[in-house]
Each structure stands twice: as structure tokens, then as C-alpha cells.
Amino acid sequence: MLSKARGDSGSAVADFVLLVVPASLLVIPLLELFGLFQSAIVKEQISYDIARYAALADVSAQAAARYAQSRDPLSSLSKDLSATSCTQVSTSELSRRIMFWPEIVKVQIQGRADCEN
User: Do 88 and 113 meet the contact criterion of CB atoms below 8 Å apart?
Assistant: First the structure.
């Protein structure tokens, strides 16, 4: 008689809560991290676009700097010259605080393109 009073009713809900809450606390930071890397991929494509534009032969340094500021205000544009080649480099950094992560995650972004002759 006592065993019927203490049946298994409600144990499925308790098991669900005991599994889903800790699992979701592990998954939320991973989703934020994936979002950060997706943003880094988009920003990297913008950096490549800035470097390609700056590498065009008929673009002045001032026009390239204006274009870089219009596409990504936090990026920096530099020109690497050597005896045999010329390369435009656009660099930027993306950082974000992720829940339950011990420190701020920083991603260095760089776009590079060879200059036209």
C-alpha cells in the first residue's frame, strides 16, 4: 500500500530538469563562442575587401583610408613594401566577453592583398 503512495509520478519531470539545466549551462557559452567566430569570419571578409580595394593601382592612399573607415572604423590599413612585391594589409580585432568564460576572448583579423602594378 505504501509503494502505491510513492509511485513514479513526476519523476520524468525531475529527470528532465536535472539533465536540461546543467546541459544548457554548458551549451550557452559554446553558442556565444560560435557567434563570435561567425562575426570574425564576416569581419575577415570585410578586411579582405578593404585590402583588395587599397591594392588597386588607381586608388590613392587617402581614398583607401576613407574606404577602410567607411567599411570598418576599427580597422587599420598598412602597406608592406619590399624589393620585389607590394602588399596591402588590413588588420582588426574582435573581442567579446562570453558567459562563464574566465577571460575576454580576442580574435585577431587580417586581410591581405597584393598590389597591382
Answer: yes
Nearest C-alpha neighbor of 40 from the set 92, 90, 78, 100 = 92
DSSP H/E element including 41: helix 11-54
- The three three-digit cell numbers of residue 10, written as one number: 513526476
Q: CB within 8 A of 59, min separation 6: which ones?
A: 53, 67
Cβ-contact 46, 20 below 8 angstroms: no
**For residue range 49-98, what is the model confidence (pLDDT) as tens digits?**
999 999 998 899 999 999 999 999 999 999 988 878 899 999 999 999 99
Residue 9: pLDDT band (50, 70, 90) is confident
Instruction: Find cell 536540461 and name the residue.
Output: 20
Give the 3-state secondary structure of residue 57: coil
pTM of the model: 0.78
Containing 67, the helix (H) or strand (E) segment is: helix 61-71
Q: Quote the strand ranges of 3-82, DSSP E.
A: 76-81
